[in-house]
Amino acid sequence: MYRLKVKVLYNIYGVKKYMLKYVEITNDNIEFATKIQMKIFPNESAYEHFKFTIERDLEYEKYFLVYDSDIVIGVTGLYSNEDINITNSLWLGWFGVLEEYRLKGYGKRILIDTIEMAKKLAKKYPIKYFRLYTSERDDKIAQPLYEKVMDLKEYYNNPEDINYDGTCLIYTKGLNNNKPIYWNNIFLNLREIVEEEKKSNERYKSDGGLNDK
Ligand SMILES: CC(C)(COP(=O)(O)OP(=O)(O)OC[C@H]1O[C@@H](n2cnc3c(N)ncnc32)[C@H](O)[C@@H]1OP(=O)(O)O)[C@@H](O)C(=O)NCCC(=O)NCCS
Q1: What is the CA radius of gyration of the chain?
Q2: What's the total number of domains in the chain?
Q3: Is 39 in the pocket of ligand 1 (CB under 6 A)?
Q4: Helix (H) or strand (E) holding 10
Q5: What is this structure's pTM?
Q6: How many whole angstroms from 119 Cα to the centroid of ligand 1?
Q7: pLDDT digits over 119-165, tens only?
Q8: Pocket flag, ligand 1, residue 98 (CB < 6 Å)
Q9: N or C: which end of the chain has fewer CB within 10 A?
Q10: Which CATH number does the domain housing residue 32 bear?
Q11: Residue 131 belongs to domain spanning
């Protein structure tokens, strides 16, 4: 009877919890990865950023396609635009689940797995905090998850930078027993990041990236 109950629950959520596979985005799969990423974030292309990350080849900066068995369901990654020796922070990048697989528990699993990756890296590099930025207006759908998983929440309001009309939030989690601390409005240069995403999108489209494969 107990076994049956567990099986029913498993079927309701439809997620094989511990079978997600993280395939690193490399030059071999970057076109496909960008296509998946752009399905999740239409009109924002990570192509250039993926390329830059592959070329930079740092152990603590990587992006992944996420598979359940052989089915690709999402994207995740870790990066830092700032010097980790100064910020002690790794950031979540391009985290998302394809629309058809949402609300099945994948997003939470992928976020937790990504935090686990950051924890492992934090044992080798001067990393203490896992952070992410988001917009409470544009990424509303992600807020309930961040509220559950992350430790601290603050508004990002650096006067030199854009802040999505005052809706930019930074969430922080302490890694490996490090007490989380606020980011405190250190300049992120989101303006340049957004511009780069737009340009990358145009370049990717003009290269025919959306028409192939
Ligand atoms: C945010 C996102 C990754 C969530 O993925 P998901 O697979 O649907 O998430 P889960 O099924 O694991 O849900 C996690 C929790 O968030 C809640 N949640 C998810 N989507 C929700 C929604 N649209 N409304 C209310 N709650 C929601 C779930 O109920 C769940 O809560 P629980 O743990 O109490 O059950 C997905 O919606 C997505 O890819 N969105 C587009 C890209 C994006 O916004 N990325 C983040 C940019 S900062």
Answers
A1: 18
A2: 1
A3: no
A4: helix 2-13
A5: 0.90
A6: 22
A7: 999 999 999 999 999 999 999 999 999 999 999 999 999 999 999 99
A8: no
A9: N
A10: 3.40.630.30
A11: 2-206
